[in-house]
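Before relying on records like the one below, remember that each one covers exactly one chain. Contacts with other chains, cofactors or solvent are not represented anywhere in the record.
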Amino acid sequence: MEPEDLDFLYQIENDITLWDVGITNVPYSRYVLYNYLSECKNDIYTDKQLRLMITTADHICVGIIDLVNFDPKHLRAELGIAIQKPYRGKGYGRAAILKMLQYAHDVIHLHQVYVVISEDNIQCLKLFQEIGFTEGAILKQWLYHNGAWQAAKLLHFFCK
């Protein structure tokens, strides 16, 4: 991420429709995100995460993809992705996931990448399964949304 990504990051991090799939439920200030950008080393071994912007061929930012919860001992990380609504269903997410998996294999030498997806997010589950993720577990009452608990699925991809 670059300093000029601040406004886009601010928009994504404060999109309350995405909070159900993340771990936050409070908005971030520009100041906090500016500090995050300036302090981030862009080194997965130091930061324990890697966040990349997803752009179109003409450099329009359409989303963010990241590897978080990086575990260097067990060579695994959790993948997260957020695509802005107008750009969903156009192949940007699939392309970004495939590039990230290639990076995870070729550069970081991960053994496993995993995702946690709400059981009712059929479109997202289908995308990851088409890419080659397989179901590992059902996490009962894992996500809290609109006053109710929802199950989530843990899917994993073994890097070869």
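The CA atoms of residues 77 and 122 lie 22 Å apart.
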